[in-house]
Automatic annotation (TrEMBL):
Record-annotated Prephenate/arogenate dehydrogenase domain positions: 20-301
Name the record gives this protein: Prephenate dehydrogenase
Keyword Oxidoreductase annotated: yes
Pfam families tied to this protein: PDH_C, PDH_N
Gene3D superfamilies: 6-phosphogluconate dehydrogenase C-terminal like domain, NAD(P)-binding Rossmann-like Domain
Keyword annotations of the record: Oxidoreductase
Domain of life: Bacteria
An annotated GO BP: tyrosine biosynthetic process
Family statement: Belongs to the prephenate/arogenate dehydrogenase family.
SUPFAM superfamilies: 6-phosphogluconate dehydrogenase C-terminal domain-like, NAD(P)-binding Rossmann-fold domains
One Gene Ontology MF term: prephenate dehydrogenase (NAD+) activity
Coiled coil: none
């Protein structure tokens, strides 16, 4: 039995008590949305942020109390960029903020390894990643239903206490998401394909518009807007994400680059005078476009979003 299967089997045998108290460290979009969801379900939630004013803004929206809890809470959620997670985990474990910890970072293996090397107690920690977000950032963009129907990955290590997984799974249930247990390395390879590389590619396409004549942009249709929507993400956060998951993202982009080279060659053939090369170019493009259709059709239906969002 694999380490993940062992943790999963033990997790199902753990007595899962209700989550009564929680702390959210980092009150941006995701952290504030977690606070809103938990507070709406009756969980006493404390909000901490390196900028106290941001925590107070989240509290004013109903996400919890902008204060440090007087006693260790049941679960602390670290809502911050991947590179900040290891030091925050160690700091708050040592200060007794919570009995168990999770995070919402979009890269899992490097923070886990760094935290272990730096002396974090991995028994009380399980990595997490809700597959939800928005182009806008900050507390004002948060909403309690952000995670409804979305997949929320947990990546326990071999040292993770099943009780920590149980606590984090209760968080996921209260937020209306669906739990998926994954190996940390497999998670990082997967999101490189499904999230990180697409974000960078969208940014590269959108970047071509930066110096374009505004009159030409009046021709932009829904396809361009859909393709570049995610390019509005915070560059500081996304630089951190891409740095943390650099090797898997580079692997995906190398494969895309190979196919881009094929597409460029095919277009050059089509633009040239040789009928044989034109036919070859047409076949190459048709093959690439057909692969795109086949891949797109494999995607599961997206979770329904509230009206107006």
């Amino acid at each position: 039995m694999s380490e993940l299967n062992t943790v999963e089997a033990e997790f199902h045998r753990v007595d899962r008590r209700p989550l009564r108290t929680a702390a959210v460290v980092g009150t941006g979009l995701i952290g504030t949305s977690v606070g809103l969801a938990l507070s709406a379900r009756g969980v006493t939630t404390y909000l901490l942020d390196r900028d106290p004013e941001v925590a107070r803004e989240a509290a004013a929206l109903g996400a919890g109390r902008a204060a440090r809890p007087p006693h260790p809470v049941d679960l602390a959620v670290l809502a911050m960029p991947p590179s900040a997670i290891p030091s925050a985990l160690i700091e708050y474990q040592r200060s007794g903020l919570a009995h168990y910890f999770t995070d919402v970072g979009s890269v899992k293996l490097p923070p886990q390894r760094t935290a272990a090397t730096a002396g974090a107690d991995l028994r009380g920690y399980v990595g997490g990643h809700p597959m939800a977000g928005a182009e806008r950032s900050g507390p004002s963009a948060a909403r309690a239903d952000l995670f409804h129907g979305r997949t929320w990955v947990l990546t326990p290590s071999a040292r993770t206490d099943p009780a920590a997984v149980a606590r984090a799974s209760e968080l996921i249930r209260l937020c209306g998401a669906e739990l998926l247990l994954m190996d940390a390395a497999e998670h990082d390879r997967t999101v490189a394909l499904t999230s990180h590389a697409p974000h960078l590619l969208a940014s590269l396409i959108a970047g071509r518009l930066a110096d374009t004549d505004p009159a030409r942009l009046r021709l932009a249709g829904a396809g361009l807007r859909d393709t570049t929507r995610i390019a509005l993400g915070d560059p500081d956060l996304w630089t951190d994400i891409l740095r943390s998951n650099a090797a898997p993202v580079a692997e995906v982009l190398r494969e895309v680059a190979d196919e881009l080279a094929v597409a460029v060659a095919a277009l050059d053939w089509l633009a040239g005078p040789d009928p044989a090369q034109q036919l070859r170019g047409e076949r190459e493009l048709h093959h690439l476009l057909s692969l795109g259709v086949a891949g797109r059709e494999r995607l599961p239906a997206a979770a329904a979003q509230p009206a107006g969002r």
